[in-house]
Amino acid sequence: MNLIPIIGIFDKKIMARNTSILLGDYFENFINEQISTGKYSSVSEVVRTALRVFEQEENKTKSLIHELKVGEKSTKIRNFDRDKNLEMLKANFQK
């Protein structure tokens, strides 16, 4: 395993800085494969793209959790029987 230097993410107020991370053989190979396809030109570019995707997924998860909490507080459904509803869903799925 090698330490791969990457350039920090740019921000309006902060200049980029070099950071070293230990990825392991699997991710080193994956990154090198991505670069060899020509889709990316550097390790930094692959890592920044991966971090953007990770950030998007985290934001989706936060949004989903927020909406679920809003739904739980909603009073639109009364007398909801969880077990009965699950059985109905299972029966419909098996059709």
Question: Please, could you describe this protein's structure?
Answer:
The protein has 95 residues and is mainly α. The protein has one domain. It contains 3 helices and 2 strands. The chain has helices at 25-36, 43-73, 82-94, and strands at 3-7, 18-22. A two-stranded antiparallel ribbon has the order 1-2. The chain starts with a strand and ends with a helix.
**E-strand count:** 2
Distance between the termini: 51 Å
Order of helices and strands: EEHHH
H/I helix tally: 3
Sheet with most strands:
2 strands, antiparallel
Strand content: 5-15%
| Uncertain residue segments | none
What is the helix content?
55-70%
Oligomer: single chain
**Into how many domains do the coordinates divide?**
1
Shape: elongated
Mean pLDDT metric: 86
What is the CA-atom radius of gyration, in angstroms?
Answer: 22 Å
- Which structural class best describes the helix and strand composition? mainly alpha
How are the strands ordered across the major sheet? 1-2
Protein name: Antitoxin ParD1/3/4
Organism: Flavobacterium weaverense
Pfam families: ParD_antitoxin
Family: Belongs to the ParD antitoxin family.
